[in-house]
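Is this the right way to post structure tokens for a design question? Let me know if I should format differently. Anyway, here goes:
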């Protein structure tokens, strides 16, 4: 079954539905990728900070050698970690990702966050682990990412976790405009302003945590957060259509023209999520789901904003 795709200016096609790999435990991911490719997934979303790109590379090498899929049939996205924003660090970081994934190029390379950390830092332990925006300007990191396109190491570049102001500023000064902005997006965080801007500028919006990321780690969990998969309105629509709540969430994302990257390591749920591509919601259900927006971020970026950090949540999401 062919699902919906986004066609870039150069004719490259990205399947809108991809497999997310954040939070997949070691040992679970390679089998999940084999299963997903067997089901028909042709888009993988990766990042070095997920700590599992070598396992992705092992699964891909195995699939390529056994004829499970050809490289050119697969869309592979990865990301530049925050500790590699200094221009001289961008290409080496991308080359390490390519070694881990056992690929000679990425289809899409994203700047993971508009936040810079000192070289060598994974997750920050204190304010001394950050570089201030002026010490690692986003435009300079972007220029180095553009060079990676020139060098043939990736076909497209984009950003992640950029708000409308930051996206506009980066696009305005860019030689190669961002192809994609990957952000948290689901009915509780519909991202309407950002989606309108992306549509106007020909930028594809990719929705992460489309199921509300129920397995997100404790450090980003807040007690008061509602469970998206249990939203009564979503459950009611799912019940009426005899599909699962996850399928309603994914069909909604696809029908708005966003790319969407649900994570699963379960064969049954991988299949269920893939089959959501066939579900069509009628306009009244689309409108009812859109009305659930409450600006709720499960991943609110507060881990970038400890006391003394040069970053604040207002800077991240508003400025
Ligand atoms: P699992 O990997 O065991 O299938 P998100 O993509 O929003 O981050 O959400 C991922 C979480 O949602 C994982 O815990 C995943 O569990 C779970 N999940 C994935 N697909 C489904 C589904 N169809 N129904 C319910 N939960 C799902």
């Amino acid at each position: 079954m062919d699902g919906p795709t986004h066609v870039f200016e150069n004719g490259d096609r990205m399947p809108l539905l991809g497999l997310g790999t954040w939070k997949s435990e070691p040992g679970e991911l390679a089998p999940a990728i084999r299963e997903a490719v067997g089901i028909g997934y042709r888009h993988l979303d990766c990042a070095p900070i997920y700590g599992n790109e070598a396992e992705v590379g092992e699964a891909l090498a195995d699939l390529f050698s056994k004829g499970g899929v050809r490289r050119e049939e697969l869309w592979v996205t990865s990301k530049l970690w925050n500790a590699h924003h200094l221009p001289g660090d961008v290409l080496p970081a991308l080359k390490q990702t390519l070694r881990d994934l056992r690929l000679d190029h990425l289809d899409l390379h994203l700047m993971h966050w508009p936040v810079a950390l000192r070289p060598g830092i994974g997750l920050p332990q204190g304010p001394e682990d950050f570089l201030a925006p002026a010490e690692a300007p986003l435009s300079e990191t972007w220029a180095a990412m553009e060079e990676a396109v020139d060098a043939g190491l990736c076909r497209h570049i984009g950003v992640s976790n950029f708000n409308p102001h930051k996206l506009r500023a980066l696009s305005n000064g860019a030689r190669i405009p961002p192809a994609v902005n990957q952000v948290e997006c689901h009915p509780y965080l519909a991202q309407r302003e950002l989606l309108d801007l992306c549509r106007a500028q020909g930028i594809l919006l990719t929705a992460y945590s489309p199921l509300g990321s129920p397995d997100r780690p404790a450090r980003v969990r807040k007690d008061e957060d509602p469970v998206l998969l249990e939203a009564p309105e979503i459950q009611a629509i799912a019940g009426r259509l005899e599909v699962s709540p996850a399928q309603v969430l994914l069909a909604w994302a696809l029908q708005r023209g966003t790319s969407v990257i649900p994570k699963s390591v379960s064969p049954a749920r991988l299949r269920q999520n893939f089959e959501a591509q066939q579900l069509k919601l009628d306009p009244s259900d689309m409108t009812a789901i859109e009305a659930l927006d409450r600006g709720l971020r499960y991943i609110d970026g507060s881990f970038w904003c400890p006391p003394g950090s040069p970053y604040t949540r207002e800077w991240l999401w508003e400025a």
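Format looks fine. Someone answered above. Worth noting: The two ends are 42 Å apart (CA to CA). DSSP finds eleven helices and twelve strands in the chain.
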